[in-house]
Structure formats: structure tokens, C-alpha cells
Amino acid sequence: MTDVKNATYQLLRRHGLTTIFGNPGSNELPFLAGMPEDFRYILGLHEGVVAAMADGYAQATRRPAFVNLHAAAGSGNAMGALTNAWYAHTPLVITAGQQVRATIGQEVMLSNVDAVSLPRPLVKWSAEPASPRDVVRTLGQAIHTAVLEPSGPVYVSVPYDDWAQETGPEEAHVTSRAVEHAGELSAGQLADVLARLDGSVSPVLVLGPDVDSARGNTDAVTLAERLGAPVWVAPSAPRCPFPTTHDAFRGVLPASVEGTTTLLAGHDLILVIGAPVFRYHQYEPGNYLPDGAELLQITCDPGEAARAPMGRAAGRLDRSRPAPPRGGRSGPRRRHYAMPWTRPAWDGPCGGSAVSGGRLRRSQRGVARGRRLRQ
Prior knowledge:
The protein is 32% helix and 15% strand.
């Protein structure tokens, strides 16, 4: 257990954001106090200069840059330079200090009264966390959103009393997340997905509405049978992606953290395809993942990929019709469903394939190339 400030520094360190460009004021000091020694602060005497320096740094390093502005006034000073960053598609992760959360509605001195609207339309996304416990997740979403194509600036306003609040176990999942983006699955990405599937002792599939919208239901059956994996429908799914009469079907996951985690316990790899992670409704807090489990999300929606609180995501899909799989997992498996394969009509979730940044069918071909089930 740690506080929001230290959890945020861990998140920034994880993403290589150890250089901070800023011109601080009183709202930012609680975050900057006790800054870790492996971080450096680049001071500018005007926020326009700060944003411009970060813009150039990000373009030169080809990595996102972290910017810390002073409340509403400092954010306004940066808007001219932010225009350049917006049109250059520069991935800037911008934070601004906000007044104490309980006083914002009073419009006390240095309140950013409508913080989310202030930087628009010159950012891809802007937010103010709904509570201190959502600060780290929101910043994680900001980082992923900034770098997903088309890249660009994002903005997060953080009340300065949030930094001292305690975090929960879910922040560890946020810190370890990765979101990948590509036009199609590269050889390295394909090998990584296959390695996770092949090394899994007890995989489980969680399917969402995009599988059905892409007419990928038959492919989903094929994948489940080749993996020998049980299948759940994601919480709150508006469409049915998998035949409910199939032996692998287990039901619809409940729309709560504790309920979903309980039902997925015992699986070491949770493969989520075509669904957000996860669309909860009933508030039953708990651990986001069962002990020892890893989650891999495959989605056509960069927003879903960026805002998920745990797991690893691949974030872009392209239309494809590759050949069907001819084999499956060679490692330990729960069950193999010996049903005949029929050619599916797969266009992929949201008009793409089931692997964001790549293709489900390509990954299935990789499964077929790399491993064979005893038929």
C-alpha cells in the first residue's frame, strides 16, 4: 500500500516519463515535494515555453513527454504552444494542479472551475479524476491515449489534496499495463501472443459484442476448440458473441469486480476479445484479477484499450481474411472440443480483425504453424 503520489511516480517511471517540464505553483507543490532522485525537472519561466520545450523533446526522442502546469492560469498560458503540439500530433501528457477537491465548487482562488473543458479542442482527451482512488488509473489512461494513433496531447487536472491519499491494490495493475498499437500484428507481437497461449496451463476466453458485430462467432468457436478453453461472455454485453448451447459456454460474467474475479479464478491467462475490460455495474469491490492470472485484451477501440484498469491490450484492427487454423495448443489444456471446422466470414470487430494491432486469423495461423493438437 502506498499513496497516490508515489504510485504516480511508479507509473511515470514505468513509461519512461522521468523528465518533467513545468512552471509550478502552490497547487503543484504537493506532487513535486520529495520528487524521486531519478526524475529531473526542467523549469520554464512561462508555460508557453514549457509546452514548447516538451513538444520539441517528444518529437526529438520519439516518445511522450510529461508536462506539469499551474492550475487554470498556467494551462491558459500554454494554449498557444499546445496548438502546435495538436497539429504536430505530439504525445504530451499534461497535468495541472487543481484546488482542494472539496473547495472547487466554491470557486476559491486557483480553482480550475471547468478543468475538463478548458484545454479543448486542443487535446485528444481531458479528464479530472472522480476520486483520489482514480488518479493513477486516469493518468494511465492519459498516457496510453496520448501515444495511440493518432497521437496527441492529453490533459489531466488533479486536486492537490489527492496526492497524499492512500491507494489500493488495483494501482499495481495500472502500473504494469501495456497497450500496443500497429496496423497489423508484427512477427514479434504474434510470437508474444503465441508464447502466452502456449505457456498457459488454463486459459479462458472472455468474448464481447464486437465478435458478433463482425460475424466472428464461428471463428470464436474455432478458437475455443483449438485452445480447449471455456468461454464467458463479457459483463453487460449488448450482443451475444458465442453460441450458448456449445459445450465450452459458461455463461455471462457478472457486472461486478468481485463476481467476475471469483468466476475467473483458477485460470492463468484471461484472453478478452472484442470487449471492454470490464463494463462493471454493481459496486462490489475486490481484486481486479485472480491470483496468478494474466489478462490480454484484443480490441478495436483505442479508448477501451487505454482506460482498462488492468491487463495488456493491443489496440488497432485491420480487415483481413486469412486462412483458417489447422492446429492448436500443444501444452496442457482443460479440454479439446472435437467439432468440425467450417469456414467463417470474419471481418473483425469494428470492421477489423480480432487482434488489435494485428489479426486473429493471423494469430490462429501462427497457432497452427507453431503447435499441433493430437486429432
